[in-house]
Each structure stands twice: as structure tokens, then as C-alpha cells.
Amino acid sequence: MGVLNVTADSFSDGGRHLAHHDAVAHARRMVSDGADLIDIGGESTRPGALRVEESDEEQRVVPLVRAVSGLAPVSVDTMRAGVASRALEEGAAIVNDVSGGLADPDMLRVVAEHRASAILMHWVSPDEYRAGAGGRSDYGGDVVGAVRDHLARRADAAIAAGVDAAGIVLDPGLGFAKDADDNWALLHGLDRLIELGFPVLVAASRKRFLGSLLPGSDARPREVAGRDPATAAITSLSAAAGAWAVRVHDVGPSADAVRVAAAWAAGRAGVN
Description:
alpha/beta; magnesium; DHP_synth-like; 11 helices; EC 2.5.1.15; dihydropteroate synthase
């Protein structure tokens, strides 16, 4: 899943693709590099980011969905049912809601009415996180179990709202009110999340816990642009663990990593 942010303040690529033609060109490059999906977002969810007006988010996202949906399947990264509805009307196939359908009470209904798929992420305190607190939530000593139980409830809520169970994808929400140890525990425990019976999306691309693991030359966390090799490593391990997809900013290295992981798995299974 290639990330296409049309925002001025996203932590990794804010401001790079604000012009419509630049964004479409970047989508084409990602598809050429091996992206199977394009995830289009018009609102940053980094700590301290201010919410944009719904009309502004719609103006950023909807024309781009219309332009890109012929290149590859499109997911729309939004917490607003109105934006999701307009994007689905213009060709999006998936709603990627980082609040898991909690931020807007109409979201799951809209997904169901459009017979779309839904990516439901774990994020228990979005208001505090967005306000800049960015702190860790309390997971009672078992972050994997807490995230698993929360996502199971969100999947149940989506099904109750009419969303097809076959179209539900779960995302553990790496980096959202979680510290580095939480993130590594969730990656190590992907099998426990997959056991719920839904596809699992891993979104670790360029995140802070990778930068902290690999300090730069000045002993500070590695800069965002230098985290792509670590992202590719996460991609390979996630693929081997059975993840449905990985959400990444630089598609090429991760697409290569998936091919290597697949060849490794085929070789181990005795397939030439």
C-alpha cells in the first residue's frame, strides 16, 4: 500500500504532493514501483496536528481519488463519513479509518451502504494524541491482548452496521499512543492478531521507533528520510508473518522485500 498524503504537515512527506499533477505523478510512480493499493489522505494524524475543515479535506482528496482510481485500487484515509462517502462515489474501494470507526458515528454505516471495505485501526485516545500529548495509553501489561480485544470489538461493530466481514482489515496502530516496546511487541505478536480471522495491515513506515533504533551520525534518532531500509526490513518480516499488506511511503524497496520474502517462503516449502 503506497502512501499518498496531500497535506502540508504529515510527519514524513507533508507538503510534497499538494499540487494535483504532482500527486498523480507520484501515484503513477508508486504503481510502477509495485504498489498494489494507493492510500490517499488529506489530514495529518501526527501529534499536535490541527484538524482541517471537512470541506478542505474533501477538496484535497476527492479529485485525486477520481484521477488515481484507474491506476490501482484506492483507499481513502479519513475519519469523516462525509469525505469517505464522496471518495467512494468517485472510485475508492476501501476506507482507512485510523479511529476504527469511532470518530464519526456515521462511518460504518457509510462503508456498509457503499459495500466498501474498511481498515479499522487501534487508537484509543485520538483527542489527547492529536492535542500533542502523544503519550502512551495503559495496556495493562499486555499490549497485544489489549489491542486484539479492541480490534475484535471494532470488527463486531462494523459487522453489526452491515459491513461485509470479508471486507474488514485490522491495523494495530503502531506508534499511536504506543511506545517503542509496545510497537515491537505488536510486531512480534502479529500471529495473535491474525488469529482473529481478519487480514492485518502493518503501518510502520518511517515511524519514530525505527529512527530511535537506528541513530544518525549525531546520535539523535535517524532522520525520516533515512528510515526506509528499516521499513523494508519490517516489510519482509511482516510478509513472512502473514500480514495482508504494509503501508509504506517508499514503495520500491518494500516491494522488493516482499518478493524476497515470498521467494524465501517458496524455497522453504520446496517450491522452485
